[in-house]
Design brief:
Blueprint: H1 4-25, H2 30-34, H3 44-63, H4 73-76, H5 83-102, E1 112-117, E2 122-127, H6 128-152
Antiparallel strand pairs: 1-2
Helix pairs in contact: 1-5, 1-6, 3-5, 3-6
């Protein structure tokens, strides 16, 4: 099982990496961010929307935060059409994740979590700590896709290695 310290480390990593990607992506035009680039979710903007949506849906399950406004994965790609709105919501939600991990206890990682998965069309039950690991792994996975797209466009996000994270 993971510890609350693990979750706090990854919450800090999440904030650092999101700031890095959003800063780099802000140098692009809206059309460049929304251009289809062959990524799993198409564009940088759509991938960042999905990533925020994924955080929101998992936090609604894990911490009882409100569900995202988009109801499904396909809807998640356009949850925030406006870049500034997406940026503001990202910063605000990163703070929610951070605050949640700061208050986390070992008991919050124990037991099982049961939820209905729209992507699989069925109810699932997994250990809570596995779902917390998934929350952070999902972030890293999709941020890696965005990092690659930004690098291809000549933007320079920060390194992604945890040991290089500022204190």
């Amino acid at each position: 099982m993971i510890t609350p310290e693990y979750a706090r480390l990854f919450a800090r990593y999440n904030c650092w990496q999101n700031k890095s990607l959003y800063d780099a992506a802000s140098a692009l035009s809206d059309d460049e961010r929304k251009a289809k680039r062959g990524a799993f979710f198409g564009s940088i903007h759509a991938t960042l929307n999905h990533l925020l949506w994924g955080d929101q849906i998992w936090m609604s399950r894990l911490a009882g935060t409100p569900k995202p406004t988009a109801a499904s994965i396909p809807d998640s790609l356009a949850q925030f059409e406006d870049w500034d709105g997406l940026c503001c919501e990202r910063v605000a939600f990163d703070q929610i994740i951070s605050d949640w991990t700061k208050a986390m206890t070992p008991e919050m990682l124990s037991g099982d979590l049961t939820w209905y998965s729209g992507s699989t069309g069925r109810e699932l039950t997994k250990p809570r700590w596995v779902c917390v690991v998934h929350l952070f792994n999902h972030q890293t996975h999709h941020r890696g896709q965005v990092h690659c797209l930004l690098t291809q466009l000549g933007c320079t996000p920060e390194a992604t290695d945890i040991p290089f994270m500022p204190e």
